[in-house]
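Field notebook, page 297. I keep forgetting to write these up properly, so this time I am using the form the group agreed on. The chain and the ligand, fructose -6-phosphate, are recorded exactly as supplied. Prediction of the bound pose follows.
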Amino acid sequence: MQSSGRADQAQIQGPGNFERKRGRAEAGAGAVRTAVHADRLQNARICNLRRKKDMRIYEANDYQDMSRKAANILAAQIILKPDCVLGLATGSSPIGTYDQLVEGYNRGDLNFAEVKTVNLDEYIGLDHENDQSYYYFMHSHLFDRVNIDPANTNVPDGMAEDIDAECERYEKLIRSLGGVDIQLLGIGRNGHIGFNEPSDIFDKMTHCVDLTESTIEANKRFFASADDVPKQAVSMGIGTIMKAKKILLIASGEDKADAVAQAFFGPVTPEMPASILQFHSDVVVIADSAALSKCPK
Ligand code: F6R
């Protein structure tokens, strides 16, 4: 494909419509024509540029159902590869999934002894004891409730003196673990994944991010006020995320419906960061009916 300037448009096939079936949703064959700027497409050449014709989108009845379905996939990964590397997310979306994994552990079905984890992101300036840090979140929702070795868990250090060095360290760490076997993602209302905010370019590697007003607004619910929400974060880049062998994106609620529809049925553009996932070769989306309500039927 040629990249001869911003004005060029590259016509590519969208992932197509999907049939919604309770408990079993499969991508349909019909394709949606979408357009991306050729130079952006170039920019997206950070992984194998191969657009999935049939992305798997599973409809869940509600948040609980979504959480159970997502946990089943992560559980299967852990059972099939006990020393797997899980890429993990924070926020409201994965809490139910983590609860289900803890239940699986308590039932004796899951063993985390050899599992390794890398988290997507962390706020800059919040230490481990801060109950809004993602380190704290991960320990309270998952790590402290299962038999994972804390030494095998990794969250970017938002307190690092040299944030650029921390970003480099994190990238190298992921590489040294052999890459991520499955990356769990939520999606922001503005389509962000990790803290990769809408932008002119797809950020490649782990980097420092200035959070957008919309993200600060969305996340202020966890803080005393919007002023208390950190303004920056360390986040895996789009390139880091795209290198994961498998992606599992979960979404629940009507406020995610626009982002889900645009990300998976719209053009691939860094203005909708999650849209890059249309190029990943192994993506499963599990979203409840409300989050899928604006997708083409
Ligand atoms: C969190 C993360 C974010 C969230 C997104 C959705 O680690 O990377 O991209 O997944 O902001 O957040 P919730 O799930 O709270 O709606």
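OBSERVATIONS:
- The CA atoms of residues 72 and 101 lie 8 Å apart.
- The helical segments are 38-43, 63-80, 95-106, 134-141, 163-176, 213-219, 238-242, 257-265.
FOLLOW-UP: compare against the apo run.
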